Amino acid sequence: MITVSQVSKRFPGGTVALDQIDLTVARGEFVSLLGPSGCGKSTLLRLLAGLDTATSGIVQVGGLAPVEACRRGAIGVAFQRPALVPSRTALENVRLTLEIVRRPGSFTPAELLRQFGLEAFGHHYPHQLSGGMQQRVNIACALVHRPEILLLDEPFGALDEITRESLTGWLRGVISATGQTVVLVTHSVEEAVTLSHRIVLMRPDPGRIHSVSEVPAAARIGDWTAPAVVAEVTHLRRRLHGVVPAGAAA
Amino acid sequence: MKAPLPFLLVLLAVPAAWQLAIWCFEPKPAFLPPPAMVAGVLWTERSALLGHTLVTLGEAVLGYAIANVFALGCALFCFHVGGAERVLAPWLVALKNVPFPTVASILVVVMGDSLGPKLIVVVLVTFFPILANLNKGLKTADPVLIDRLRTLHATRWQIFRKAAWPAAIPFYLAAHEIAFTGSIIAAIVAEWLFAQRGLGFLIVQASTQFRTDRLFAVTLVASVVAMLVYGLVGLAERRVLRWQRA
Amino acid sequence: MPSLLRFLLALAFAALLSACGRAPPPAAPAAAPAATYAQTLASVQARLPAARYATNDFIPDAGTPPPAFDRRVRLRIGMPWLLNDEEAPWYIAQEKKFFAAAGLDVELLSGGPAHNYLAVLAGGGVEIGVINMTTQVTKFVASPTGADVVIVAVTLRRTPEAILAIDHDTPRDRRSTRVLRAADFAGKTIAVETTSQYVMESVLALNGQPPGEVKFLRVSTVDTLIMRRVDGMASWIVNQPRLLEDAGYLNWVAYPLAQHGWEGAADVSVVRRDFLRDQPDVVRRYLWALRQAVEFMLDEPVAAAEITSRYATGQPLTPAQVLRRFELQRDLVLGDGRAGLLRADPDAIDRTAAHMVRAGVIALPAAPR
Ligand SMILES: Nc1ncnc2c1ncn2[C@@H]1O[C@H](COP(=O)(O)OP(=O)(O)O)[C@@H](O)[C@H]1O
Ligand SMILES: [Mg+2]
User: Fold this and answer.
1) Candidates 3.40.50.2000, 3.30.720.10, 3.90.226.10, 3.40.190.10; correct CATH number of C161-259?
2) Which of A244, B144, C58, C130 is deepest in the core (most CB within 10 A)?
3) Whole-model pTM?
4) Which CATH number fits domain B36-245: 1.10.3720.10, 1.10.1060.10, 3.50.50.60, 1.10.357.10?
5) Which CATH class is domain A1-70+182-244?
6) Spatial CA neighbour of B154 closest among A120, C121, A100
7) C31 pLDDT higher than 70
8) What is this model's ipTM?
9) Which atom of ligand 1 is nearest to the CA of A41?
10) Which residue of chain B comes nearest to A68, CA vs CA?
11) Are C141 and C236 contacting, i.e. CB atoms less than 8 angstroms apart?
12) H-type helices in B112-164, by residue range?
């Protein structure tokens, strides 16, 4: 579904954000990009979303150039900061996506909000919603046209721990229902472990893939205290320590 | 009006202070005519005052509409053509700072005492604040939202309509507060410089006839018109931005 | 953007509405009086007679010796315009020590478009205001927000107002011999200021040219005349023709209002009535000095022009330019003769006031004022 081969990204300032990345993501797979700040996770995601172009290498989404995939409405994105129009209600914000892409099989915005447990808040403006609710609306905006691929960049990064945990469980439910291919950027090990089929661990300077690990099915559950989850989280966290440059952790 | 009481208080306090000043200092009516005298002018000359007010209002509103169309066009152009703003800005600033009394006499010579020169003065005065606010407002559009729209392959126009324009609306409305009232003043100044009708003309006429009472009456009418326009903008603002208080 | 569209539509609608609002006729504070000119003049003489606000009783005769005084007096005099050669007599009175000889320490205050020395005079900011035209004093006295002031002298006894034009049939470097008639302005455009339009209309009407057939435009630079944007221009015969000559147009022609029934007078010395009552000798002393200065200007134009060009700080002028003005204004200063220097004609002021009433420029007070 997603193919990234020999992709490098060098910014005008000289920063090499990505260096010779190879990655494939299968249809229906949930892949997390994990790593410390500045290792190029967001940059890679922006390449997949067609928001930026690689300096070299090839990025393909569903066999197409990302921009072409966008044109077909195959991509939905959600970032850390909800991209909502403040003067539109939750429902109108979800509708906004459909005002731009009309695809057969799209969700009904009201129905989607109902499924997301936001039925009572459809006519609320973003500033009237909590951070967690805003992010759910934001993800509804990304999903409503039923794109094949969902790209998420730290969607829960700004939320408190409890909300983040419950939304992680909620997202797993949503994705298992829609069956989409997902690439999630996160720096939360728990989030990555409990949601993903595979975790791509990245390291900075220059941004490279350090290792890729499969997550055992037993760890993809809602309870972050379950032994399988804890074991996997511990394992990954140790690996993560290895990629953080000495002294940079402080 | 949300607070009618303070508003009414001010409304009463002004003539009261005025009358009090007259009792205390007994100024010559050439400097400060008593309120009753001015009220007398307002009443006896009401139809002429109304006629001239409509002339001024017509010029102001028409010129302002033109300024809006130009400013919106310009802002759209700047939004769509990257770098256009930087190229245009110095020219617009130059245009804005044209000393229009000098331009006015050229205009009236070239175009005669027609609507044209007055509209041009109004446009010159009001165009720039509208455009500056629009450009500023369009730039406040959420980049994350714009990115999201780009992944939906939104056109530049759709990005303008769905993301940039809603962001610019509060700025656009704020511009009206300054520019719409400014359009009235601009029309008055234009008339004062070269017209034969309108409140500005009445001001020149009253002052050359040493009719301080009429001068005050005209000034009062002009202030009321400006206040009404300001109130109108406030009303529109509250209506359009009512989601903010939801 | 429905909201924007709606807004623009509303704007356009409002514009249409107000544009449709019936435009009032230009400048019509009162309905045109149905009375004949003679009737109007009679009302002026009854309700606003110039004899009440203009007096020649304080002007000394020619050859009067310097007046005696027991106390020097400080006198602030508001000038009619920026300090140029219009104020020549007052400079001369300073320079030749006529004011000093009359026991007056005089301060000349510059005038100009932003100055209204009638109001300043009423407020006590100056003791004497030199006002452009007698018509202005009439307006001030007639106004319910005016004040009680009195004309004590006029320096230009005939009005310098004229409709100036360029005779394009005469080469630029030659003086025109053409004589303009009122009918020549039919279908033409005349540049005016708000204060002068009614004057032009009245004079044209007096001379058989319906003013409705003439267009008026509010501009005031001679360039518009040179560029032929206007055919005529309301001007002072002593000012704008000289500007045209300096620009190389000797072929100007003028339609002097004084020769066509308009009886204004210019550079008018005005005082408050209470000042005249309390300090009549000061007014006498001032007028003595002014008279000496005017006589000097008439008798010694070369010396007078030299003094004037030094004093005229508001507008740089060569003595030659000043001399040209003296030449152009000599008859206006003299009026009906040397003996009557500085004397106003109250009857003429009334006749002019009657035209002003008919033009709607002033309203007569109900009772004599
Ligand atoms: N637009 C940009 N211009 C220049 N440098 C950039 C830009 N975006 C990101 N970078 C740099 O690229 C590197 C990777 O950034 P990013 O992909 O945002 O990292 P992450 O999301 O993993 O924290 C960082 O060093 C960052 O400073
Ligand atoms: Mg990032």
Assistant:
1) 3.40.190.10
2) C130
3) 0.83
4) 1.10.3720.10
5) alpha beta
6) A100
7) no
8) 0.92
9) 22
10) B153
11) no
12) 115-139, 143-151, 156-159
